[in-house]
Amino acid sequence: MHVRLPIRERVLMAALALAVALGYGASVKADTGPDAAPEVRSLLGAPQAVGAGQFRYLGLKVYDAQMFAPQGQGFEEEGLYALEIEYARKIRRAVLLRASLSEMERIEGARSDHAEIMQKLEACYRDIRPGDRIVAAPEASDALKFWVNGTRTCTLRHRDIRDRYMAIWLSDKARDRQFAQQVMAARN
């Protein structure tokens, strides 16, 4: 699936990609931040933050991210967990989709099923305004559940999608290596 973005958004995407590639973006917060969103609590019971990070571009905050796992269990890649991202900027759905695809391509290389994944992911994302949050939580290795501002938007079903999509934040190739290392260090 090819999404043609307006020139303003293409310039923003290029600038964001360059900033991340040059290492301008991410910083890890030492504290665990605010309490988990209601959908995270309903999934995990008593969640604990196992990692938190903040993405900034040219000094401006774009989003805060927190990874949650069940209290006392630590982080398990194949277990229960939820990624909560709270945005500080307005971002169009097409830009979020393109950024997700770009990161998957950067991590995995070009794969024949990327267009299919993006088509499925389109139902999960919405245009974002400051203060909006997206929560992604694995249901199984082949399924991810998504919420936007507490409303369930989709369950994305695709072979190995948990590991492939979450690699954007958790792999050794993640842009925010500090966040990935912090979450992985919290393994049980």
TrEMBL record:
Domain Chalcone isomerase as annotated: residue spans: 60-179
Origin species: Shimia marina
Lineage of the species this protein comes from: Bacteria, Pseudomonadati, Pseudomonadota, Alphaproteobacteria, Rhodobacterales
Protein name: Chalcone isomerase domain-containing protein
InterPro entries registered for this protein in UniProt: Chalcone_isomerase
Pfam families: Chalcone_3
Domain of life: Bacteria
